[in-house]
């Protein structure tokens, strides 16, 4: 273009490919050109559109209306493009036919440039509406088939095949009689349902340099791998957006929306790309989310900049709709671009009629900054004076200092990837322009005086936070890992090169850690910055526990309650509580126990009495018998102490909770009458075992005669006497479970008492789990006796007694073996019945639990995290609810009879470790977190399908499912039934540790066989845990049960202080780099979460490794062959016990 004096011709290419030249002053601001374009088009709903250009680096940028145009364009010959900026999710909100037509042209443009990928059928339907609007009805008199499309030169997609044209023709025939306006409306209604409608992706990377695509839309910020959406950060979840050089930061609302992190990071190639995307996010949030945006007072006297001062310039969608309704008058008709049978390039879409200037817009980026950082606060709070209007406001400011200089010529506009709209358009503009417009000169800067002096009614700056949150400013990264969440959130998993693996970047420990006992302040979760770096106790910033977010799901709960941090002094040392550890044990009393923020559950219990340091000068090392039989007997003692405590949950604490008056229901009377004799016996039996171990350790002279270095005689003389009570309990056990379950349904008062009791700390497992402990205890004793008889020689004086007792226990275990497994299945179904919203009668005598776990299910919104439950007759999939009880809402179910599992590639929707499930007229595509998980699911599914095929009964078919499990009715019903959910400090603590919740958090699964293995792999005893940031060790009483470690100060404590679910953890010995120079130390590790524990002897070290390995390897091991044939050497067959 040639300059003419102080004016320059700028070309604008419109959506119908028409080119129009605007002659403006060389110092004109963007607002001048924009208003000329609006007048040229006679456009009313202006804020949906904007002008885009390609900068010197090949990035697409929106023209900044508050900057000089020639300061932004690389040169005056570079054309600008009139494009849609905000794709409305609801086209019916568009008031003007011209606006709908222009948006339809944008959809057509997106199809041609490949920016709207969708299925072939959808493409054909979209194009058929375009054809209907352009040429009218199908020309049946002139053409018998699809050839009219090529004859008219109608090409709408890059690779328009003959097969596609046939589909277009078939759809076109169905639109007979539709006017162009109706065709546009149908086109927009169809396009808005396409997943990538209005999506312009920007390439970015996570902290592991995994390529991603980010996009901003009306609902929030989207994360893609390729074109597969893997995460959505909705505006409701975002508290603040900021950038620091190339780093884009999303700060979330952890306290309200339960995401597992409160800061998410992405990295762009350049600072300009990062800032450009940040601006896009600010504009989209303001336009779609806010009702009004008032302009803040500008402080131009700042000496030191605090970053970008960019603000959205224009009206919000709500304001625009109100303006159009107020200002709307009968619009003059506009001329559409003709095509098909008439030359399509001879007439401009733009009308040549004068129009009133639309209302003026105010821009906010008056500082032309090259700031390397900036921020945008998304304030979701509503102050008292806003309650009537529910007006959402935004506050835009910088939160970081600036290093660098300012320049009016800096480029800080939103940019989209090079492949997006507007790339390499110079060839298109080679043709002559279709028209020209002269824009009168106006004073500068500011374009026209009325632009600057227009009342700033559209801009509102609200305080950053409401008064209730004014002092809470969390900016810390929390624990990192997963999922279907944005991989940049700190995942330790490495994606394959092809990028097809689903990434769940979160570790999901929703479980409270061990807390500092002497603290009087409210306990808080540790915030983790990265890896294993932790925060000190002095850090006053708060951060949330690990959270998860699913696309467009209800906000999740905060983490389960933290155990109160103040406890009474510990009781006097028990008989064997002062046991010492091996020769490397050292200790002194530290002045303070450190509070350590570990990237999992465990921080430190302050216990100066049991902590150790490296000073061993005054430590007296105690010697114990080296006989293996002693340590087996000691394991019996340790587990007996835990067993008695478990019985007390029923016989003592639950009894106190339900005995509110003299009358006791029959079902409770039966329970207490059958279990009390067992508890009373074990109180006496425990004393006998403690006394015997005391003698065995040499604490009396009796050991000199050798009469007390055995345990079999106690088992024969005492324990065998209680077997009759056990048999009586076993015979009544199923009735007790079912009677309690029925009472919960019939008696609302009892149900409330039951639920309240489960919120008590003493009830650290689901209550009915404790009812199974007697049967499990006999199994543990049998395994201990097997171990000790294998150790003894037949001539050992204790051998015959142990063998005799083992024989009786084996007979009893075999007799009740099937009943035990049936009761464990019943208990599991009862547990799931309470946690699954949408199932009426899950508990059924013929239904068998098989596997539960997390898979990613493909839907229109991409891959989303779902919890799957496999039963003997059906497969159920669910998602986490937002209720305080941590429940799961049923989304759907598939019957196993007739089900087919297929592992083939499913076109573009398939990702790594995906497979399809066909059943009940449905097909769902799911993806596992690993090949191992995929193999386990497919194996169990095929085995269950075969079993269902061989069953002849139809008793279970759909018997337990509501008619509409996937609707929101289930949630509404649940909310009505539980109108007063328990407060956060009263939530059921054990729910977070149940396998279904741990599987959800850790993206894994657990099978029926894993549960059976967990029954016989339980252990109790003292361990030393290493402090994270010092060489000290802390003595804890540890109970391992139900896939979880529970930590106490002593075995006499009534409830655990913290817990650590071990699903996903691996147990090993420390490496050289760990720097642990002690004996009998084992290492627990899950990704970057590492703990070290020290046992007292070689035997206990082996036992802890064995039980943890049996559980974790059982759930993690890859099975190449059938699970029945892949049993590891040395394992005890589950079917035998």
Automatic annotation (TrEMBL):
FERM domain sequence ranges: 8-292
Compositionally biased intervals (Pro residues): 555-575
Compositional bias segments (type: Low complexity): 400-415, 595-610
Assigned keywords, A-Z: Cell membrane, Cell projection, Cytoplasm, Developmental protein, Guanine-nucleotide releasing factor, Membrane, Repeat, Synapse, Synaptosome
Biased composition (Basic and acidic residues): 417-428
GO molecular function: guanyl-nucleotide exchange factor activity
Localisation per UniProt entry: Cell membrane; Cell projection, Dendrite; Cell projection, Dendritic spine; Cell projection, Filopodium
UniProt region (Disordered), positions on chain: 335-379, 392-441, 463-497, 511-619, 961-986
Residue stretches making up the DH domain: 628-819
Residues of the PH domain: 848-946, 1016-1113
GO cellular component, one term: cytosol
Principal location listed in the UniProt entry: membrane
Topological type in the membrane: Peripheral membrane protein
Keyword GTP-binding: no
Listed Polar residues bias regions: 529-543, 961-973
PANTHER family to which the protein is assigned, alphabetical: FERM DOMAIN CONTAINING PROTEIN, MOESIN_EZRIN_RADIXIN HOMOLOG 1
Name by which UniProt lists this protein: FERM, ARHGEF and pleckstrin domain-containing protein 1
Native source species: Potamilus streckersoni
């Amino acid at each position: 273009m040639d300059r003419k004096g102080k004016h320059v011709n700028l070309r604008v290419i419109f959506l119908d490919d028409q080119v129009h030249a605007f002659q403006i002053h060389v110092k004109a601001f963007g607002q001048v050109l924009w208003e000329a374009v609006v007048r040229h088009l006679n456009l009313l709903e202006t804020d949906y559109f904007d002008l885009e250009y390609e900068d010197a680096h090949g990035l697409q940028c929106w023209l900044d209306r508050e900057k000089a145009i020639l300061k932004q364009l690389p040169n005056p010959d570079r054309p600008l493009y009139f494009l849609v900026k905000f794709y409305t999710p609801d086209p019916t909100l568009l008031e003007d036919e011209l606006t709908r037509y222009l948006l339809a042209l944008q959809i057509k443009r997106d199809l041609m440039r490949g920016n709207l990928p969708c299925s072939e059928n959808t493409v054909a339907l979209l194009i058929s509406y375009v054809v209907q609007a352009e040429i009218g009805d199908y020309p049946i008199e002139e053409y018998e088939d699809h050839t009219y499309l090529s004859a008219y030169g109608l090409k709408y997609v890059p690779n328009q095949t003959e097969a596609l044209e046939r589909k277009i023709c078939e759809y076109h025939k169905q639109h007979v009689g539709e006017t162009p306006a109706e065709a546009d409306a149908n086109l927009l209604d169809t396009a808005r349902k396409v997943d990538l409608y209005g999506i312009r992706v920007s390439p970015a990377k996570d902290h592991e340099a995994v390529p991603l695509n980010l996009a901003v839309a009306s609902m929030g910020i989207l994360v893609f791998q390729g074109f597969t959406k893997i995460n959505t950060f909705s505006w409701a979840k975002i508290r603040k957006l900021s950038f620091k050089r190339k780093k884009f930061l999303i700060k979330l609302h952890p306290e309200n929306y339960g995401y597992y992190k409160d800061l998410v990071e992405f990295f762009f190639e350049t600072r300009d790309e990062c800032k450009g995307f940040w601006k896009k996010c600010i504009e989209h949030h303001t336009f779609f989310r806010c009702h009004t945006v008032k302009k803040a007072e500008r402080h131009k006297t700042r000496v030191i900049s605090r970053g970008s001062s960019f603000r959205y310039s224009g009206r919000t969608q709500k304001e625009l709709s109100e303006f159009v309704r107020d200002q709307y008058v009968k619009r003059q008709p506009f001329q559409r671009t003709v095509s098909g049978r008439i030359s399509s390039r001879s007439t401009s879409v733009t009308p040549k009629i004068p129009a009133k200037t639309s209302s003026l817009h105010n821009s906010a980026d008056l500082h032309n900054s090259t700031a390397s950082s900036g921020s945008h606060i998304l304030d979701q709070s509503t102050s008292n004076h806003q309650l009537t209007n529910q007006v959402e406001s935004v506050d835009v400011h910088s939160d970081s200092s600036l290093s660098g200089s300012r320049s009016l010529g800096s480029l800080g506009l939103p940019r989209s990837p090079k492949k997006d709209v507007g790339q390499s358009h110079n060839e298109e503009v080679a043709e002559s322009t279709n028209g020209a417009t002269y824009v009168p000169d106006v004073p500068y800067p500011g374009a026209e005086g009325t632009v600057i002096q227009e009342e700033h009614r559209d801009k509102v700056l609200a305080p950053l936070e409401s008064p209730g949150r004014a002092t809470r400013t969390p900016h810390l990264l929390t624990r990192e890992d997963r999922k279907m969440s944005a991989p940049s959130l700190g995942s330790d998993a490495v994606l394959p090169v092809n990028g097809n693996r689903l990434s769940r970047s979160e570790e999901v420990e929703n479980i409270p850690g061990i807390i500092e006992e002497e603290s009087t302040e409210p306990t808080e979760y540790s915030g983790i910055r990265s890896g294993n770096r932790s925060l000190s106790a002095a850090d006053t910033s708060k951060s949330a526990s690990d959270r998860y977010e699913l696309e467009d799901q209800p906000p999740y709960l905060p983490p389960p309650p933290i155990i109160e941090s103040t406890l009474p002094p510990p009781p006097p040392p028990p008989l064997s509580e002062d046991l010492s550890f091996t020769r490397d044990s050292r200790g002194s009393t530290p002045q303070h126990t450190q509070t350590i923020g570990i990237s999992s559950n465990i921080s430190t219990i302050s216990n100066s009495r049991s902590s150790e340091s490296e000073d061993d000068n005054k430590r007296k090392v105690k010697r114990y018998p080296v006989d293996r039989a002693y340590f087996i007997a000691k394991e019996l003692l340790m587990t007996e102490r835990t067993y008695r405590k478990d019985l007390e949950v029923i016989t003592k604490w639950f009894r106190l909770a339900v005995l509110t008056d003299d009358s006791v229901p029959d079902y409770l009377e039966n329970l207490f009458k059958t279990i009390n004799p067992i508890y009373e016996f074990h109180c006496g039996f425990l004393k006998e075992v403690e006394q015997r171990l005391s003698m065995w350790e040499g604490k009396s002279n009796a050991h000199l005669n050798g009469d007390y270095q055995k345990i079999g005689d106690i088992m024969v003389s005492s324990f065998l006497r209680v077997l009759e009570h056990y048999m009586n309990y076993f015979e009544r056990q199923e009735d007790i479970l079912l009677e309690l379950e029925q009472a919960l349904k019939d008696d609302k008062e009892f149900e409330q008492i039951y639920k309240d009791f489960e919120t008590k700390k003493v009830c650290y497992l689901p209550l009915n789990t404790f009812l199974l402990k007697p049967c499990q205890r006999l199994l543990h004793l049998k395994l201990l006796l097997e171990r000790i008889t294998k150790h003894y020689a037949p001539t050992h004086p204790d051998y015959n007694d142990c063998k005799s007792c083992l024989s009786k226990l084996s007979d009893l275990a075999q007799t009740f073996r099937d009943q035990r497994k049936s009761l464990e299945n019943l208990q599991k179904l009862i547990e799931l019945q309470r946690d699954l919203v949408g199932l009426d009668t899950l508990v059924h005598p013929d239904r068998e639990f098989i596997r539960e776990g997390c898979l990613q299910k493909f839907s229109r919104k991409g891959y989303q995290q779902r919890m799957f439950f496999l039963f003997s007759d059906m497969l159920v999939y669910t998602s986490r609810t937002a209720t305080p009880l941590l429940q799961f809402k049923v989304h759907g179910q598939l019957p196993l009879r007739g089900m087919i599992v297929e592992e083939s590639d499913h076109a573009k929707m398939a990702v790594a470790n995906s497979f399809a499930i066909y059943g009940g007229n449905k097909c769902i595509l799911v993806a596992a977190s690993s090949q191992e998980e995929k193999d386990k699911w497919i194996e169990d599914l095929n085995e269950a399908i075969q079993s269902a095929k061989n069953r002849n009964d139809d008793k279970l078919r759909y018997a337990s499912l509501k008619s509409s499990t996937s609707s929101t009715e289930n949630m509404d019903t649940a909310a009505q039934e539980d109108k007063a959910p328990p407060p956060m400090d009263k939530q059921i603590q054990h729910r977070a540790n149940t396998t279904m919740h741990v599987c959800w958090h850790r993206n894994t699964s657990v099978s029926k066989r894993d549960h059976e293995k967990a029954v016989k792999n339980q252990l109790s005893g003292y361990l030393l845990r290493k402090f994270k940031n010092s060489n000290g060790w802390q003595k804890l009483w540890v109970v391992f049960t139900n896939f979880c470690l529970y930590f106490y100060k002593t075995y006499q404590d009534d409830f655990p202080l913290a817990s650590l679910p071990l699903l996903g953890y691996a147990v090993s010995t420390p490496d050289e780099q760990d720097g642990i120079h002690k004996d009998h130390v084992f290492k627990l590790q899950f990704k970057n979460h590492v703990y070290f524990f020290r046992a007292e002897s070689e035997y206990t070290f082996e036992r802890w490794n064995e039980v943890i390995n049996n559980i974790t390897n059982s759930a993690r091991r890859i099975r190449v062959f059938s699970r029945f044939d892949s049993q590891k050497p040395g394992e005890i067959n589950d079917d035998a016990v």
